[in-house]
Write a structure and sequence with these properties.
By secondary structure, this protein is of the alpha/beta class. It has one domain: Thiamin diphosphate (ThDP)-binding fold, Pyr/PP domains (Rossmann fold). About 40% of the residues lie in helices and about 20% in strands. Strands 2-1-3-4-8-7 form a six-stranded parallel sheet, with helices on both faces. The chain has a two-stranded antiparallel sheet with strand order 5-6. A hairpin with a 5-residue loop joins strand 5 and strand 6. Helix 1 crosses helix 2 and helix 3 packs parallel to helix 5. The protein starts with a helix and ends with a helix.
Length: about 180
């Protein structure tokens, strides 16, 4: 399955959750699949989606879903330790693992030799899932967090355009959504 297909599958099972999406192509693919004010598209800050999602989940009760990449998680493994120790019940961290840095030239990561689900379990995550074909994301959403989801996807980026929103616009509409202002 390609990353955009995994994103589409997840979006079909989301209702009103807040979504933080990893930089570059994953954000572009999410925007193409389903744009929403509930989505925060990261345009920079590689490795920080999990940290932003953690902060957001600690600030309110709404379910927060982070769509991250293997390269970003490997870059900021400390965030997994912090997420586990903070124990936000409303946080779902999804790692879309294509074994490469897809937005920066598809250089290989070490996820081909590192089982990220086992890393999360070794840190202490009790609610972990692994998907390679069909994604039962409703099952994931029904579990109290923190939840770690490892999804293997094929390398490559979908041919999608750049997000036609300025960073300030993305931030403003997301903050309004979080605060309940329209």
């Amino acid at each position: 399955m390609h990353r955009i297909e995994a994103i589409r599958n997840i979006c079909e099972q989301l209702d009103n959750e807040l979504v933080i999406c990893n930089i570059g192509f994953p954000s572009r693919e999410l925007y193409q699949v389903k744009d929403s004010p509930t989505h925060f598209y990261m345009l920079g800050s590689m490795g920080m989606a999990s940290s932003i999602g953690l902060g957001l989940s600690l600030s309110q009760d709404r379910k927060v879903v982070v769509l991250d990449g293997d390269g970003s998680v490997l870059m900021n493994l400390g965030s997994l330790v912090t997420i586990y120790n903070q124990k936000p019940e409303n946080l779902v961290l999804v790692v879309l693992d294509n074994e490469c840095y897809g937005s920066t030239g598809s250089q290989c990561t070490y996820s081909s030799t590192t089982d990220l689900k086992k890393v999360a379990e070794a840190i202490g995550f009790q609610n972990t899932f692994f998907f390679a074909d069909e994604i039962d994301f409703q099952k994931v959403l029904d579990v109290k967090g923190p939840v770690f989801v490892h999804i293997k996807v094929l390398p490559g980026n979908a041919d999608v355009p750049v997000i036609p929103l300025e960073p300030e616009e993305i931030k403003k509409r997301f903050i309004q959504e979080v605060q309940g202002k329209k």
